[in-house]
Design goal:
This protein has about 170 residues and is of the alpha/beta class. About 45% of the residues lie in helices and about 15% in strands. A 3-stranded mixed sheet has the order 1-2-3. Strands 4-5-6 form a 3-stranded mixed sheet. Mean pLDDT is about 85; it is low at about 1-5.
Length: about 170
C-alpha cells in the first residue's frame, strides 16, 4: 500500500478556484454595475482602480443596501406619524435628486479585499468565509490575484465525491 502524507491529500485553493475574474472599474456607475452583474449572471465583482489594481469588491448587496438606505431610516421610529411621512417625502426627493448625479462603484464598494494563497487548504478557506460572512474570496500567488473562490466553488467540493473524500481522509 502506498503511503501518502495527509498534506498531499488536502484539497487546495487552486484546485477549486475560478481562474477567470470579471473586474469592473471603480468609475463605472452603479447602474452599469447592476447591468454587468445581471448580464454575467454573477452577484459580485472585484473593483479596479485606474492602474488595474483591485481595490475592493462590489456586489448586488451593495447596490441593494445603497438604495434601501437612501429611502429608509431607522430614526423614523422616534417620529410622530406626520413627521415620519414628511421624512419619507424628503428622502424620496433627495433620492430622486441623487439619481441625477450618477453614483459610482467606488461609492458603494467594500474597500477591504480578503485573499488566500493558492496553496491554502479548502477547510481553512471555508472557516475564513464563514467567520467573515463572505460569499467570495480572492486567490493569490506571489501577491497577484490568480482567481476567486465563491460559495458555489465551495459547494463543488461537497458535490464532487473524490474531493469530499480527500477532505474527509485529511481529518
Amino acid at each position: 500500500m502506498l503511503f501518502r502524507s495527509p498534506r498531499a491529500m488536502t484539497v487546495l485553493a487552486y484546485e477549486i478556484m475560478t481562474p477567470s475574474i470579471k473586474a469592473v472599474p471603480q468609475s463605472w456607475t452603479m447602474d452599469r454595475l447592476a447591468r454587468f452583474l445581471t448580464d454575467n449572471e454573477i452577484t459580485g465583482s472585484p473593483v479596479t482602480d485606474d492602474d488595474g489594481e483591485i481595490v475592493g469588491i462590489a456586489t448586488l448587496k451593495d447596490i441593494t443596501e445603497f438604495r434601501w438606505n437612501a429611502t429608509r431610516s431607522d430614526a423614523d421610529r422616534h417620529l410622530t406619524p406626520e413627521e415620519r411621512e414628511e421624512a419619507r417625502r424628503l428622502r424620496m426627493v433627495i433620492f430622486e435628486e441623487m439619481g441625477k448625479v450618477p453614483v459610482e462603484v467606488r461609492d458603494i464598494m467594500t474597500p477591504i479585499v480578503l485573499s488566500v494563497d493558492e496553496k491554502t487548504p479548502v477547510r481553512d478557506i471555508a472557516n475564513i468565509m464563514m467567520c467573515e460572512h463572505l460569499h467570495r474570496i480572492f486567490v493569490t500567488s506571489d501577491s497577484k490575484i490568480t482567481g476567486i473562490i465563491t460559495t458555489y466553488d465551495m459547494l463543488k467540493v461537497i458535490s464532487d465525491e473524490a474531493l469530499t473524500q480527500r477532505c474527509a481522509d485529511n481529518d
